[in-house]
Amino acid sequence: RDAEARAAQSNGNRLYMEVGLDPRCPDFVLSAARRAFQKAYHPDLHAAPDAAQRFREFEAIFDRLEQSRKS
To answer: Beta strands of the chain (E only): which ranges?
Structure first.
């Protein structure tokens, strides 16, 4: 059971690192970072061929981070 908890913690920390945040950051920093990524990768704002895919990936990461803070 401890190994599962450590694995979950490690995975959560990896997600924070992917978006350049400290796992201990306040909620408002997480929200601000999400908005910044939305502006940077929204396919309606950027014509990069991978914009839609990157947008979906970052949205999934931020969804998981926000859910982990609620539980």
So the answer is: none
